[in-house]
Amino acid sequence: MTHRILFVCLGNICRSPAAEGVFRARVPDCQTDSAGTSGWHIGEPPYGPMQAAARARGIDLSDLRARQFEAEDFNRFDLIVGMDAENIKNIEALRPAGNDTPVRMLTDFAPQTGADHVPDPYYTRDFDGALDLIEAAVAGLGAYLRA
Ligand code: 4NP
């Protein structure tokens, strides 16, 4: 079965495009997109330092463009994956009545890391640390989808 998966963060220029880029490189035959709960960076490509850190691992994010998460996304995707608790709260605030699309935290798929969210590298500047966590969680998410 083809899965439709949406990755969501705050700005849609660091964490969620990185998650989308890693996921599409590692997990074949899925439809993916990413979005931000804010509209601050609509139309922008992923943040330069995030693109550079990803490119160093062979992950090309250059075609991605930021957009804002919207209620209709609950109908477009089978699974919505947020990066931190604030993302989840802002996603859930737009859930249409009667919709039961699962919304999960990316780090749920990497329990071995002990992380309960993906720290925002826009603020921490730890782009490689974010990518390490994203890689671990994407591996777990891929296994979950195959199960
Ligand atoms: P992201 O990081 O949510 O991982 O894309 C951010 C990028 C930009 C801003 C906040 C978070 N900002 O405040 O502009």
Written overview of the protein:
The protein starts with a strand and ends with a helix. It is built from 6 helices and 4 strands. The chain is α/β, with parallel strands linked by helices and 147 residues long. It has a single domain, classed as Response regulator (Rossmann fold), CATH 3.40.50.2300. Strands 2-1-3-4 form a 4-stranded parallel β-sheet, sandwiched between helices. The site of 4-nitrophenyl phosphate has 10 residues, from loops.
Summarize the model shown:
The chain has about 150 residues and is α/β, with parallel strands linked by helices. Helix content is about 40%, strand content about 15%. The mean pLDDT is about 95.
- What composes the largest sheet? 4 strands, parallel
Elements, N to C (H/E) = EHEHHEHEHH
User: How would the global form be characterised?
Assistant: globular
Distance between the termini: 11 Å
Q: How are the strands of the biggest sheet laid out side by side?
A: 2-1-3-4
Low-confidence stretches: none
List the helices and strands and how they pair.
Layout: E1 3-9, H1 15-26, E2 30-36, H2 48-55, H3 73-76, E3 79-82, H4 85-92, E4 103-105, H5 121-124, H6 127-146
Parallel strand pairs: 1-2, 1-3, 3-4
Helix pairs in contact: 1-6
List keywords for this structure.
about 150 residues; Rossmann fold; 4 strands; binds 4-nitrophenyl phosphate
